[in-house]
């Protein structure tokens, strides 16, 4: 029996009203923004949580935690666990922290911490099983693999890899400096960027084994960058795990690699920082939009901006679209919300997180009116 037209209209109206109600509720509930900061005796709170509703109201700080020099952190998929690197304590010892986050109340709880022998951890990543952490150390050029126990505690490093290399920039590349570590989308590799050695290293990784230990055994594959590039952070294409975009801090460029082909030559190299002179370039962060249509990079130095590229749907190459000022100094890090609608940038030298709305169709950014104040903010992440 065919449904009458007026019934169809009523059903359509009901669905639209329900969708509108859910959208309004989501807008009212807002989003958490977590910030990590470098600290001093008068500003000890290295971790802060802010509730932001994106409706022009001022963000509200819900909690903070005194963690010294929290330069970077990552968050579990459910948003309830934060894994952070504390670059050093008063005694100079670095540490890894596990912090629980209550998404209802916005409160932190320090669950566990371990001291490490590596110097100046600057990056931490959680594998897709949620059981293994990788930590990269800038000064000691090491990579730690750390197991998360069944009791949600941190073990001592299961394995440590030493990285060796050097480059042509004397004051920055006299030795290796591991600046970021990330598990591949398929969780079968661990990648590490060596700013000092102009290289990315790819270690074989196996999360589930007979002895419940990962297996990065063989000598790593080497992905070479151009002399003086200084690779800092890198991003996998959200829809194509074989496409990798590497942001080069020292040369202010982006290199694109197809990991299915030769690892020795990039498929494309484009400028990220077009303003700062070569000795002063300082590109910092690279992220793709969740739909894989746009790539964003942050530039410090004299630029203080975000560069926006369109990603070609067939070739995955980059086409420059625009730059957007960060309305602050020294954008060290930025994040994009899971729905792709917002971007938050951490301007470290003037202690501000500036927020933008993002057009999903054009990729362009529009500054939102309110800012978050966070002392020497180094990292910012969304928690929905």
TrEMBL record:
<feature type="signal peptide">
    <location>
        <begin position="1"/>
        <end position="27"/>
    </location>
</feature>
<keyword id="KW-0119">Carbohydrate metabolism</keyword>
<dbReference type="InterPro" id="IPR019405">
    <property type="entry name" value="Lactonase_7-beta_prop"/>
</dbReference>
<dbReference type="InterPro" id="IPR011048">
    <property type="entry name" value="Haem_d1_sf"/>
</dbReference>
<dbReference type="InterPro" id="IPR015943">
    <property type="entry name" value="WD40/YVTN_repeat-like_dom_sf"/>
</dbReference>
<protein>
    <submittedName>
        <fullName>Lactonase family protein</fullName>
    </submittedName>
</protein>
<comment type="similarity">
    <text>Belongs to the cycloisomerase 2 family.</text>
</comment>
<dbReference type="InterPro" id="IPR050282">
    <property type="entry name" value="Cycloisomerase_2"/>
</dbReference>
<dbReference type="Pfam" id="PF10282">
    <property type="entry name" value="Lactonase"/>
</dbReference>
<keyword id="KW-0313">Glucose metabolism</keyword>
<keyword id="KW-0732">Signal</keyword>
């Amino acid at each position: 029996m065919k449904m009458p037209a007026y019934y169809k209209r009523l059903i359509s109206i009901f669905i639209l009203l329900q969708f509108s109600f859910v959208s309004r509720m989501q807008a009212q509930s807002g989003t958490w923004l977590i910030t990590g900061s470098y600290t001093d005796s008068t500003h000890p709170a290295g971790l802060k949580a802010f509730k932001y509703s994106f409706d022009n109201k001022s963000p509200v700080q819900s909690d903070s935690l005194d963690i010294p020099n929290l330069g970077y952190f990552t968050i579990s998929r459910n948003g309830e666990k934060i894994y952070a690197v504390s670059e050093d304590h008063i005694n100079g010892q670095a540490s890894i922290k596990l912090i629980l986050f209550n998404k209802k109340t916005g409160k932190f709880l320090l669950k566990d911490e371990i001291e490490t022998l590596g110097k100046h951890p600057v990056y931490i990543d959680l594998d897709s099983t949620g059981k293994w952490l990788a930590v990269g150390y800038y000064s000691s050029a090491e990579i730690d693999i750390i197991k998360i126990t069944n009791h949600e505690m941190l073990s001592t490093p299961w394995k440590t890899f030493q990285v060796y290399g050097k480059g042509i920039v004397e004051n920055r590349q006299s030795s290796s400096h591991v600046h970021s570590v990330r598990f591949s989308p398929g969780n079968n590799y661990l990648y590490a960027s060596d700013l000092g050695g102009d290289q990315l290293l790819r270690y074989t990784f196996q999360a589930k084994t007979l002895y419940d230990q990962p297996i990065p055994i063989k000598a790593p594959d080497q992905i070479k960058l151009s002399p003086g590039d200084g690779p800092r952070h890198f991003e996998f294409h959200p829809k194509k795990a074989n496409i990798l975009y590497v942001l080069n801090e020292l040369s202010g460029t982006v290199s694109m690699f197809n990991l299915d082909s030769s690892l020795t030559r990039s498929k494309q190299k484009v400028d990220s920082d077009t303003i700062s002179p070569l000795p002063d370039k300082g590109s910092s962060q690279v992220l793709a939009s969740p739909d894989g249509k746009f790539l964003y990079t942050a530039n410090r130095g004299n630029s203080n901006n975000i560069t926006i590229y369109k990603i070609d749907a067939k070739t995955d190459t980059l086409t420059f679209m625009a730059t957007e000022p960060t309305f602050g100094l020294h954008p060290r890090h930025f994040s994009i919300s899971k729905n792709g609608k917002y971007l938050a940038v951490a301007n470290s030298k003037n202690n501000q997180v500036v927020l933008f709305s993002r057009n999903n169709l054009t990729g362009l950014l529009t500054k939102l009116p309110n800012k978050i104040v966070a002392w020497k903010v180094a990292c910012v992440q969304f928690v929905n």
